[in-house]
Amino acid sequence: MSTNRDSSVGSTPAEEPHAAPAGASEPAVGQPRRRHEVHSLGQLTTDEIMAELDRREHRIRRLEERSARLRSQLAELDLQLAEVGEQLPALESAVAGSARGRNGQAAGVAPAPRRSGGRRAPRAKNAVSLAEALASAVEVRARVSVAEAAELVLKNGYSSNSSKFAMTVATTLGKDSRFRRVERGLYERV
Length: 190
What we know:
mainly alpha
């Protein structure tokens, strides 16, 4: 048995429109729209378009001022670099002159290649690793300092473009089991 109830009793009629929440379809006058709500310029009022243009013009002015300040700072840094660059050859020759021997070359050290523009010099190619070169250059039970080991390896034909070659030698000596650290900077070939 089915009971038919009258749909008009105790319920709202279906034809009655539902009220939309305030501000859901169109924002009130004076309230800014969210960016994701605007899909075309036709949805914006003239005042909103003018406000957006003003905001963008103000941002452009601020960015142009910042750009001018940064260009000025960059020009100042370029001048400082140029001054240092002019002084560099004199400093290099003064340092090189005091470190050179009678023949005008540093003892046992190949001249470092000149680097320009931040480019690296090509990596030196060697037939053996630095550890192998050190082991063959230093006799068993001999004690050598890091500087002496670096000089021996270079004299035996090992080539390196490293500006900190002695540091690389020290690291290699410390890690190689064929060398024992006697004291700071002094290693013994075992």
